[in-house]
Structure formats: C-alpha cells, structure tokens
TrEMBL record:
The keyword Hydrolase applies. The keyword Transmembrane does not apply. It comes from the Bacteria. Belongs to the thioesterase PaaI family. It comes from Paracoccus alkanivorans. Residues 49-126 form the Thioesterase domain. Coiled coil: none annotated. One of its GO terms (molecular function) is fatty acyl-CoA hydrolase activity. Keywords: Hydrolase. This is PaaI family thioesterase.
Length: 140
C-alpha cells in the first residue's frame, strides 16, 4: 500500500485536528507494512493496582489504527470507528510508555480493517490485541 502521509504529517494533523491528545500520543514510524505509535504514560492513564487503564490502551489502539488508515488515504478527519474489539492479555507496566504496532489488513473504498498489538515499552509480549473497522466517508 502506498503511503501518502508520513509520521511528521500525521503528527501535524493530530496537533491541528485533535489538540487534546496530541501531546500524549504520537506516531513514530510509518511504512507500507507497519505503523508504530506511542502513548506517553502519565498519572492520568493509571488505575489502582499499578497498571494502565483499559480506556488508555483502547485510545492508543484507536489512534494508531486511525493514523495507519490516514497514512494511506490522506487527511480524512471524518473517518470513524464502526467496530472495535480489544483483548486485554496481560498487565501493562505502569512506569513504561505503551507502544502500538498497527497493520492495515484491508483497505476498501468505504471500509478499512486493521489490527494493533499494544506493548509496554521494552516488552516483547503484547499486553493487548485490538481489531477495528473504520468507515471512510465518500469523497466529495
């Protein structure tokens, strides 16, 4: 799949369109097979028990998948999640950032399907697996 937005362009887009999350999440790498994004973990992402909250993990996966799709179709702010599934597989490390490795599995005219594996920084085993479908609005 051709890449039309690199990491720099995606981060600029996030800063413009979603300034509320741009400081916490960033795209680190984009290539035809893989997009890598990071959540800089802070106090707001933690929950009792010394772990990172499920909503924070979901948000990273959603952002990574959204950006992986935009990397291929361009800056379409109104592409939206239509289906999501998350498997929480192990406890993430509370004192480490989270890293998402995302792959687009199918990119059609109106739907895109992708998956993300979420890791604690430095870890080799995923803490979560996410699968999402996005609806792509028609070109006007």
């Amino acid at each position: 799949m051709d890449i039309v937005m690199d990491a720099e362009a995606l981060n600029a887009f996030l800063g413009r369109e979603f300034p509320q999350v741009a400081g916490e999440y960033r795209v680190e790498r984009v290539d035809p097979d893989l997009l890598t994004a990071r959540l800089t973990v802070g106090e707001a992402h933690l929950r009792p028990g010394g772990t990172i909250s499920g909503p924070s993990i979901f948000a990273l996966a959603d952002l990574a998948i959204y950006c992986a799709i935009l990397a291929r179709i361009g800056p379409v702010a109104l592409a939206v999640t239509t289906n999501a599934s998350v498997d929480f597989m192990r406890k993430p490390e509370a004192d480490r950032d989270l890293r998402a490795e995302c792959r687009v599995l199918k990119l059609g005219r109106v739907l895109a399907v992708a998956e993300a594996l979420i890791y604690s920084e430095g870890g080799t085993e995923p803490v979560a697996r996410c699968s999402m479908t996005y609806s792509i609005p028609p070109k006007s």
